[in-house]
Write a structure and sequence with these properties.
It contains 15 helices and 16 strands. The chain is α+β, with helices and mostly antiparallel strands. The chain has two domains: 245 residues, 2-Layer Sandwich (BirA Bifunctional Protein, domain 2), CATH 3.30.930; 93 residues, Rossmann fold (3-Layer(aba) Sandwich), CATH 3.40.50. Strands 1-5-6-11-10-9-7-8 form an eight-stranded mixed sheet, with helices on both faces. Strands 13-12-14-15-16 form a five-stranded mixed sheet, with helices on both faces. The chain has a three-stranded antiparallel sheet with strand order 2-4-3. α1 runs antiparallel to α5. The longest helix has 19 residues. The termini are far apart. The protein binds histidyl-adenosine monophosphate. The site of histidyl-adenosine monophosphate has 26 residues, from β6, β10, β11 and α11.
């Protein structure tokens, strides 16, 4: 039998070595900001009832039509690997009776998500998101706060060239009358539309604005825009949101064609972009209000807003501007040794260093001092601790300061104190 050579599934990837540094930093910084603004972490199952997503995200969306990983359990339940986080959070909000808590309930999540998409740069079939949801408050100040929290994360990550696109897609009232207007317009232009948009005219006319086909661009430019057709309430909500964003001096632009690809949105929708070094615009994340979703999924009427960011996209943006230097692991001490007695003393010394929270890199398996010193200089450690055969017998260690070149021999039980002194 031919030896099997396994590969990762198409569109999925390992996060290893250097990438883990970005990955962990992004999650740490995001969690610090979420905690500061009073969001608490929620972890929901990776699998949920398939209908939760079909209903939540909408049946006529790319996710429901072609991107879900579904399975039938041995007991006959139809489950789906979560393609996004909002429907799961709303399910939990209803199921766990969170409406009885002080509102808004502010939650965040970090984890993997799954979409059966065509793999390409920045698009995976398993990807990581962090996201936040604020449930139970309709006021525009919450819209501004959610956008501000996300902006703060990107600023703490030291990303540059960030822009925010924002739009309002109205509520049931104004959107229904607007949709009729749009359908009428699209029907009048039917001969100039691509086949997808002809279909969308019937199924989900707002998605016409997501079409990238050059054929549809002129029709798009001339199309009536929802932002010019908002009811009084939605108009006031949007205006107030923008005023708060102005106060915060956030770099937003109104994009009247921004509609987002999921069906649950109402009123404010937004997306964050970064300009890459090739001058391309990369979508880092997006979100919006979803004031009807809790009711649609079986709860009480509850206004809510949230957003999610793609962690791989942020990693890409950080690498693009060489942010790697900002994320050097803390100065680590290198522990070198020669001979088996020195190895055993090193094992014990390493325990004292760990308890003193001094990060250490070792090469316990190596015997050659030359190889160990080369590794230490590659890492850029400030201190190297050397336990040679003679030192091991006498319970001593040599501490070498690589910045000053000075070295001293000290009793093993004083190494921690000396390193701490710096
Ligand atoms: P979304 O726009 O579908 O929104 O996804 C948010 C972000 O996840 C995208 O901007 C992108 O960075 C990342 N992302 C999406 N698909 C992929 C993929 N295949 N590969 C890599 N990254 C990807 C949502 O998921 C909503 N649940 C956001 C939300 C929360 N709205 C309200 N609350």
């Amino acid at each position: 039998m031919k030896k099997a050579k396994f590969q990762k599934p198409t569109g999925m990837h390992d996060i290893i070595f250097g990438d883990q540094r970005y990955f962990r930093s992004i999650i740490n910084i995001a969690e610090n900001i979420f905690n500061y603004y009073g969001f608490s972490r929620i972890d929901t199952p990776l699998l949920e009832d398939e209908d939760l997503f079909l209903k939540g995200v909408g049946e006529a969306t790319d996710i429901s039509e072609k991107e879900m990983y579904t399975l039938k359990t041995k007991g006959g339940d139809r489950l789906a690997l979560r393609p996004e986080g909002t429907a799961s959070v709303v399910r939990s909000y209803i199921e766990q009776g969170m409406a009885n808590r002080p509102q808004p309930v502010k939650l965040y999540y970090v984890g993997p998500f799954f979409r059966y998409e065509r793999p390409q740069a920045g698009r995976y079939r398993q990807f990581w998101q962090f996201g936040l949801e604020s449930l139970g408050d309709a006021s525009p100040v919450i819209d501004a706060q959610v956008i501000n929290v996300l902006y703060a994360i990107l600023m703490d990550l030291k990303l540059k060239n960030i822009s925010i696109e924002i739009n309002s897609i109205g509520d049931k009232e104004c959107r229904n009358s607007y949709k009729k207007m749009l359908v009428k317009y699209l029907k009048s232009k039917s001969s100039s539309l691509c086949s997808d948009c002809k279909r969308r005219t019937k199924d989900n006319p707002l998605r016409f604005f997501d079409c990238k086909d050059p054929k549809c661009q002129a029709v798009k430019a001339e199309a009536p825009k929802i932002i010019d057709n908002l009811c009084e309430d939605c108009h006031a909500h949007f205006k107030q949101t923008l005023e708060y964003l102005d106060e915060l001096e956030l770099p937003y632009q109104i994009n009247p064609c921004l509609v987002r690809g999921l069906d649950y949105y109402t009123k404010t929708v937004f997306e964050f972009f970064v300009t890459t070094k090739e001058e391309k615009s990369l979508a880092l994340g997006g979100g919006g209000r979803y004031d009807y979703l809790v009711k649609l999924l079986g709860g009480k009427e509850t206004p809510a807003i949230g957003a999610a960011f793609g962690i791989e996209r942020i990693m890409q943006a950080m690498k693009d501007i060489n942010l790697v230097d900002g994320f050097k692991p803390k100065d680590r001490v290198f522990l070198a040794q020669i001979g088996s007695l020195a190895k055993s003393k090193s094992l014990v010394l390493m325990e004292s260093l760990r308890k003193a929270k001094i990060p250490v890199v070792e090469s316990l398996g190596k015997d050659s001092l030359k190889i160990q010193m080369a590794k230490a200089s590659r890492i850029g450690s400030k201190f190297i601790i050397i336990i040679g055969q003679k030192e091991a017998i006498e319970n001593l260690a040599i501490i070498k300061n690589m910045e000053t070149g000075r070295q001293e021999t000290v009793p093993l039980d004083q190494v921690v104190a000396k390193i701490k002194k710096g």
